[in-house]
Specification:
It comes from Bifidobacterium parmae. GO terms for molecular function: ATP binding; ATP hydrolysis activity. This is ABC transporter ATP-binding protein. Keywords: ATP-binding, Nucleotide-binding, Transport. Pfam families: ABC_tran (PF00005), DrrA1-3_C (PF13732). The protein has about 350 residues and is of the alpha/beta class. The chain has two domains: about 250 residues, Rossmann fold (3-Layer(aba) Sandwich); about 70 residues, YebC, transcriptional regulation domain (Alpha-Beta Plaits, 2-Layer Sandwich). It has twelve helices and 14 strands. The strands form three sheets. The chain has a six-stranded mixed β-sheet. A four-stranded antiparallel β-sheet has the order 2-1-4-5, with helices on one face. Strands 12-13-11-14 form a four-stranded antiparallel β-sheet, sandwiched between helices. Helix 4 crosses helix 5, helix 4 packs parallel to helix 6 and helix 5 packs antiparallel against helix 6. The radius of gyration is 24 Å and the shape is globular. It starts with a helix and ends in a 6-residue tail after the last helix. About 40% of the residues are buried.
Amino acid sequence: MKDDHTTTATTTPAVAAQTPTPAAATPVSTPAISVAKLVKRYGDMVALDHFDLDIRQGEIFGLLGPNGSGKTTAINCILALLSYDAGTIRVFGEPMTPTSYALKRRIGLVPQNVAVFNELTVEENIDYFCSLYVPKKADRAPLVEEAIEFAGLGEFRRFRPGKLSGGLLRRLNIACGVAHKPDLIFFDEPTVAVDPQSRNAILEGIERLNAAGATVVYTSHYMEEVERICDRILIMDHGRHLALGTADELKSMIDTGERITVETLDLDEATLAHVRDLGFVIEANWDGRELDVRCRRGDHNLVDLLGVLRAAGVNVGHLTSRPPTLNDVFLELTGKALRD
């Protein structure tokens, strides 16, 4: 969404005559985002099919779906970067249009593709993007310093982006998007291709922004991140709202229960067929070393499975049983796993 970031930045500076309106100006009961019956077509293709979305103020909201599901189109419509064919969009209770400059000043965008200027230093980049919303240097200076400190970029302030590691570039990208202290922040795949330490730092930073009052809309293909930080999650596909809830609520919506993995080297086809015939087994596969069994919900799945294996004289090594994951939710609701 690099182009989206640039478009937003270049449409607002002429009217950004003051710092963003604080979140307290909007009643907390008013949704941060309310989308109703949104339709977007590209010729004969329907990208958004009467799509609904309500995001509460103060939450971290996960917007998830496979590639081509309509996530980016929905976000671009919410940001008034795309026109749409039908439906309504309101941000903090007000209609969102291309000229809703007061609302745009309250929004921050951290795009998936790093969108900074290679000719500018870290500090100059943050100052530039902040200036699109806060024109006065005296007002901007403390915000820039705070963003540098927030992102842990103090010792790199004089560096140009080409000298930064991938993790530092991601942190710079975030600092540029949040320096003006927006009330609503969109994070689009902010941890792609970064090391675990940088990923953890980014997630902790998002949680701090949220704790300070920002509403966060988060998209990612990393399910463990979504489960860690998101209060509620919406799953969409083919431009439609499929399911909404907390991670635990989504898991309770599907038939899939635990997944059992058993190390074994001597499973035969007859025993594998017997396993597959068990009433609670959704799917069972053996790769010559490990038996992987996806189960429906039940109280005695592991005991019953081990009973079949022992009766057949199968030697069992290490075994694990884990509850359903968000990826399992995707497999059942969309028929596909999230992918890059």
